[in-house]
Design brief:
Elements: E1 7-8, E2 11-12, H1 19-39, H2 47-52, H3 55-81, H4 86-113, H5 121-128, H6 145-165, H7 171-197, H8 210-226, H9 230-239, H10 244-260, H11 262-286, H12 291-296, H13 299-319, H14 324-327, H15 339-370, H16 377-380
Antiparallel strand pairs: 1-2
Length: 389
């Protein structure tokens, strides 16, 4: 596992191949499903198409990437410094996540002030403080913030657990963290089923919350913890001997999800998808010169991946069927395909260049000014590229 200090999945930590491309694939699936859902109000859309363009699978890919990347970088920091700077980690995440979100919420408040959008206090507060996955969403422009809340809750909890485990020297600490991830993965299907069947009329009766999706993040964490170990590498070679098998499993699981929904997802689907996405992700990282890798690492695809965070934040504003009340009939092009997608890309590009990039530059300057990683200067100079840290 010592190779993780400088390389992840056989790739340099300065830029991990294929991750931005997988982000681009993920956001495409999200946009496609939301477009199909809008079409479903006026046309009969067969479940098969909702399975092929399953935005839920796109979200799962995002979650696995987050678990994998965050854990890999924290492990790298621990190997270089002998510890993990929680203060530095939380500061980096805050400067990465908060500015685009607060900018978007600010725009919604302006629409509310102009009388174009109903504003509900709980929605705004839960979005700003990232507990929207446990709040009843009444504002349609914030309905997708459940995923951002789950990610932020993961960013808060997992580094604490990982740091606790890594107090033990060498492989023992990583194995302890792996056991936590495995335990969460094993118990999550039961938690989902109980939340859906037993915990009715409680806040736990919610399939879009942290306690029902924690395992999708843990798959990525476990991947980062176990890669390079003999047992895992034997399993990886066996599973990816025919490289497209994990991808095929993802597609089949997505179709079963669209057809049977909770009856598949809760006990089986999310677990099957998490396993398949994990192996497919690592295969893509380790095979950037393959035909699939060449697509994922093509410059336009990588750029979409870089924009994926802003795209995800803004897409509901242009794809939700309720947006006619916001834009009115005179701006119908803004919510009509393909112009809605072009509008999303344009707004995301603006948000990335006017909000995200300046905040990342400010973050790096502040890290140096306050010496958050003074014990090891090499840590604070890690390029942000596709790590998005």
């Amino acid at each position: 596992m010592s190779a993780v200090a400088t390389r992840v999945g056989g790739a340099s930590m300065d830029r991990i191949p294929s991750l931005d491309g997988l982000r681009a694939l993920s956001i495409f699936l999200v946009l496609a499903l939301h477009g199909l859902q809008r079409l479903g109000f006026t046309h009969n859309v067969p479940w098969f198409w909702a399975g092929i363009f399953n935005g839920g699978t796109g979200v799962f890919i995002f979650f696995v990437i987050s678990g994998y990347l965050i854990t890999s970088l924290l492990l790298r920091e621990h190997e270089k410094r002998g510890s993990i700077s929680l203060r530095g980690f939380y500061f980096r995440r805050a400067m990465r996540i908060l500015p685009p979100v607060y900018f978007y919420v600010g725009v919604l408040l302006l629409f509310g002030w102009a009388g174009r959008l109903a504003i509900f206090k709980l929605d705004i507060v839960s979005a700003l403080f990232f507990f929207h996955d446990y709040a009843l969403s009444l504002m349609w422009p914030l309905e997708h913030f459940w995923t951002l809340s789950i990610e932020e809750q993961f960013y808060f909890i997992w580094p604490l657990l990982l740091l606790y485990c890594l107090r033990r020297p060498g492989p023992e600490g990583r194995w302890k963290a792996s056991k936590i991830a495995i335990a969460i993965i094993l118990v999550s299907p039961l938690i989902r089923v109980l939340s859906f069947t037993v915990a009715r009329r409680t806040f736990l009766h919610n399939n879009y919350s942290f306690h029902t999706h924690a395992d999708t993040l843990m798959f990525g964490c476990l991947l980062a913890l176990l890669q390079g170990t003999p047992v895992f590498e034997r399993l990886y070679r066996y599973v990816t001997k025919i490289w497209w098998i994990p991808a095929a499993v993802i597609v089949v699981s997505s179709c079963l999800s669209a057809r049977y929904q909770n009856y598949w997802d809760l006990p089986f689907g999310l677990t099957v998808s998490g396993i398949a996405v994990s192996f497919f992700l690592l295969w893509c990282v380790r095979n950037p010169s393959s035909a699939v890798g060449s697509i994922l690492n093509a410059r336009p695809v990588v750029h979409i991946g870089v924009l994926s965070y802003s795209i995800y934040i803004w897409q509901t504003l242009f794809l939700n069927h309720d947006n006619i009340s916001l834009f009115g009939p005179s701006l119908k092009l803004l919510y009509t395909f393909p112009f809605s997608w072009l509008a999303i890309l344009l707004v995301a590009e603006i948000s990335y260049n006017l909000v995200e990039r300046p905040s990342l530059r400010l973050r790096n300057r502040l890290i140096k000014s306050f010496h958050l990683y003074a014990a090891n200067r090499r840590i604070q100079e890690v390029p942000v590229s596709n790590s998005n840290l």
